[in-house]
Amino acid sequence: MVAGRELGTLRNSILKIRKSHQGTTIIAIISLFALLTISLQYFALSQFYKLALDREASALLPQVEKLLEEIENENLEKDLLFIDLGMEQLVYDENETLEILALRSLGISNVQSVYAYNKSAKLLDLPTNIDNTSHFQFGLEKLNSSITTIHLGDTYLSIIFPIGEKAEIGFLKLQIDPTKAILPERKAIKLEVIKQGLIVFLIGTLLLLVVFRIFLFRLRKAEVELIKKSETLRKTNQRLSNACKSAGLGAISAHLMHAIKSPLMGLKNLDFGGDQKDKETATKMLKATTQKIESLIHDTLNSLREHELDEESYTFEIHELLSITSNKFSHLSKNNRVNILSSPHDSCKLDNLKANLLLPILENLVQNGLDASPDSKVFLQVEKKDDSFLFNVMDNGPGVPEVLKDKLFSPMQSNKKNGSGIGLAICKELAEQINAKITLKSSTDKGSTFCIQFIVKG
Q1: Structural domains for the chain
Q2: Residue 190: what pLDDT?
Q3: CA–CA separation, 73 vs 64, rounded Å?
């Protein structure tokens, strides 16, 4: 029920976030589209204005060329006459041709003033110059072969024409009145472009909204499918987690049953008859066995509780873990049968979940080592290889029989008297709960070494 409420809350949160972002996204998209439309309108207006001005300049060019041709023909006749009369000093030069052309160009319709420049772009002093200080400077390299519109204002339009082939005579700048044709056309172009831009913007916005709605519909459908799949995955993970926990709890419970079997067998074989000394010995064994069973049950219940809660609430140092294992067999300490070998990794820490499942494995392996022979000793040591911890349980017993090595961790395999054959199988099951691996590292007639290996989280 709690998971269902959390999923519902998550779904509502997603819907709120989606709705709040939909409006922002739509506004952002429309704003970008509006900016793009305005940019395209500005570019289109610039191109249309340029075309209109170029058309006006091209319309004036034939008139200027016709005047120039008339002036050159007149000057040619006069030059020939002056040469025949021996008055070569009166022959017309380029500047005089420009001056005459400037004066006659004032007769062109809508021309307000005319400025003449020699081929070096120097302004000639003519009566057609209305304002000698306000003329525009220009680069010769840009005007040698083309007409150039210099400036369009509210009262005049300046157009420069190169005179002669590649402007070998000079330049003529006409300032014409734009109010009769150019400015009205410019205004009409602007209104038409704005009108077309608005139509494009409205149609584009509608299309964007339609596409956006289709996209949101598909996104919402995919989101619903994703939520369904997430819910199915959550339930599957929950079942898997429960199965893993059940397997772990079953392994711990099996360890408990296996661990109390030996004390129970001891109780079964107790003989309370005989003299007083035998009774006292039996009573002590009974008391010790009862305490051992109580301790096993207590430790197992703690492990069950923590494994069920799945909480990493505290840690063990590795040396502390090995010491706890050794202390379980403290009644044998007088013979030093369980020893801990020092290691540079003794201070490393494990969380309580791993430690509480690792303890019964170590205890079982130690017990097996002690049971190998009456005089056998067990040694505990930890190593670190790459990203793994290696817990080694070594004994100096007679070793594992060859016939058992291949199926050592299978149930019902034992070479001990009254052995159940499930101890190592339970150890393997517990190891798998902490993603560990238990192996027989080596075994000879001089002893065996079991290794528990699990990866350390970075």
Answers
A1: 94-180 (3.30.450), 243-455 (3.30.565.10)
A2: 84
A3: 14
